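Q: Fold this one first, please.
A: Sequence and structure below.
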Amino acid sequence: MTVGLSWDKVIDKEVKSSDNEEIGKIKSIGQYFVEIEEGVISKKHYFIPKKYLHQYNDDDLLHSSLTKDEIKQKYQRDSPPLESELEESEKGKDYELIPLMAKEPGLKIKTPSMEEELKIPWEEIIHKHVRTTDNIDIGDIDRVGNQFIVVREGVANVHMYYIPKKYIIKYDGSSLWLNLSSLLASSKFERKNEPSEEEMDNLLDQ
């Protein structure tokens, strides 16, 4: 992943949600979160953990990996949260503001199951559905790495899948299809924490 803007340069920048709704402008940066202000007269404040904010390479906006409803339900409040109110997974003070994509300009994949190379513009694939061979939607694409995709399912009860690109067989414009059943996806590639480099090598060998 390539590094984007530093946190101290994002004040007053606009933020959009994963469903392309305007959230507001960044007003302040905390240790664990970013304060976003929406509205002029009747103002609303959202205190979103840094891990949910990303930067695209070709615009000046910031983007959240959460929908606007998710942000309103969980992070709208009048004052900053206490550290004790934050979940452990939200306390990453060293999160970098990174692009919501891998460093390549697009997703290009050629696997043995494909007749020709699959080319997908990165701006089209983020947040698209991921389906398995048994036609189960296992979540949405959260990130694209050089050798794998990260799939996120759920809001309160989140499931994360780190799936090697070799299992991708097609993209129909709304969903990315895997040559993998939902049961195998869960048993092989679901993880609570991001895998280490050694663990990722093991995943790629599966």
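Q: Good. Now the second chain.
A: Here it is, same layout.
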Amino acid sequence: MQPTLVILAAGMASRYGSMKQVQGFGPGGETIMDYSIYDAIRSGYGKIVFIIRKSFEQDFKKIFDSKLKDRIAVEYVFQEMDEFINGYQPPADRTKPWGTAHAMLCAKNVVNEPFAVINADDFYGLNAFEKAAHFLNKECTPDRWALIGYDLLKTLSDNGTVNRGVCEVDAAGNLLSIVERINLSRAGDKVICDDDKEPKELDLNTSVSMNFWCFDPSAFSFIEKMFHKFLLENIDKPKAEFFIPIIADEFIKEGGIIKLIPTPAPWFGVTYKEDAPEVEKSLNDLIQKREYPERLWI
């Protein structure tokens, strides 16, 4: 059974200021998602699941349906505020769905095989998709998940601070915890964290999560149980979000193993508008090295 790739694309990109998921960055107008899908296909994935808002549906289908037809199976899943809330009433001033773990849960009815989860607006690199596919095909079980780890230094922006999930691992390379650190920036040979946590400085070779996860399909039942608990505790908080690291942390506490799989692949993304030219340059550099064709889908 081929693994599935789930793409989280329902966010509104508040810091970026527009719907960057469908912005063209490649020479043929390719989105960052196009490159992820291209890498997934050549790594042996059998299906793409887009998690979007219902209002995005026509834009996504117009971009992807024709180019992916006969190349890979495609599903569209909608993350809306009332999905899986079981009668709870969201606060009137809540303006967005419940976060990345809730987005994953919305794919429950269309994913029955081991699957990877990625962000729509991050470029992860072929090596990451190959390593994830190997894990999903050979090692993934109900009590064993994985996270692709990136070097912190490769994930910073020259145009502002970033937030990153800093990974702590044991001697066997398994995840112990992910701590969300905010306002990270480089200062010489150090990375400074302008938040209220310790340490204030991080090593340049620290591993961080860029939200590239590998799951067994049994994860959906685990997430659904946790989401009901989350709603019970947070239903009246208009900005509370149910993130994937929350479920990962609980999974580990209950005895599950999450393998941290390091990748040397380049990562780049678009947190700020000013990042866009660098993303375009990075893609063109990879095309010049013949790692990607100039037009992906011809």
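Q: Anything worth noting on the second one?
A: Helices lie at 32-42, 57-68, 100-105, 126-138, 219-234, 244-253, 276-288.
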